[in-house]
Design goal:
Blueprint: H1 3-18, H2 25-32, H3 36-43, H4 46-67, H5 74-91, H6 93-100, H7 110-128, H8 136-156, H9 164-178, H10 190-200, H11 209-223
Helix pairs in contact: 1-2, 1-4, 3-4, 4-6, 4-7, 5-6, 5-7, 5-8, 5-9, 7-8, 7-10, 8-9, 10-11
């Protein structure tokens, strides 16, 4: 096994057993059977090691998210993705807290960024279906904030005090806020219509570039109307 793999395996074990504080350079080098300078040579610094550990742990989570093919119902896919996310956090609390408990703007681990891209793809499909009641950016941020906050809160509680219904309630509250499911004989509102049109606007090749830019500006203004 290469030094890099031994170091990551040792760090993952220490993280699971003792949390972030247990992943010291000295402890990792001793557990991996390497000299401390090897950690800095391979990962740059301790934060580089922690990011590598987070990405390594998230590989399993991402395999779970990408293994399930999308269905014809993107909202159902969003529900499934939320549940998978929360379950991963509760099953791997130290790893989840390492990735999401100490946010650094613009410095999320690659695997966490990939997970965010998967979420953005689901939200885009909801928009294309005409079922998104807010802008895609607002929806992605709200789902991400709700899922992360719910998971971290549940992690902070003793297992015996965790209410499994809490995640479901938070999930449905957010889905109810960002989506619209109007009856077939009722036309969707202007915001949902604008969001749907904005999602498919790049395919409107009959328009010139400046025309698409102008229409995009108008649609964004309609879509960002504050909900009442």
């Amino acid at each position: 096994m290469a030094n890099r793999d031994r170091i990551i395996d040792a760090a993952v074990t220490l993280l699971a057993e003792g949390g972030r504080d247990a992943v010291s350079t000295r402890a990792v080098s001793a557990a991996a059977g390497v000299q401390a300078p090897a950690i800095y040579r391979i990962f740059g610094d301790k934060q580089g090691l922690l990011d590598a550990v987070a990405s390594h742990g998230f590989e399993t989570y991402l395999r779970t998210k990408t293994a399930a093919p999308p269905t014809d119902d993107p909202v159902a896919d969003l529900r499934r993705g939320w549940d998978t996310h929360v379950d991963f956090g509760l099953t791997n609390p130290a790893l989840y807290s390492l990735s999401y408990g100490d946010p650094r703007p613009g410095a999320a681990p690659p695997a966490a960024r990939q997970a965010a891209e998967i979420l953005a793809g689901i939200i885009h499909r909801i928009a294309e279906a005409g079922r998104l009641a807010v802008t895609e950016t607002r929806a992605v941020n709200l789902v991400h904030a709700g899922g992360r906050g719910t998971t971290l809160m549940l992690i902070s509680l003793p297992e015996t005090e965790r209410d499994p219904a809490l995640s479901t309630m938070a999930r449905e509250s957010i889905i109810g806020t960002i989506t619209t499911d109007a009856p077939p004989d009722v036309a969707p509102g202007p915001v949902a219509t604008a969001v749907a049109m904005r999602a498919v606007l790049p395919a409107a090749t009959v328009l010139t570039g400046p025309e698409r830019d102008l229409l995009a500006e108008w649609l964004d203004r309609i879509a960002t109307v504050q909900p009442r």
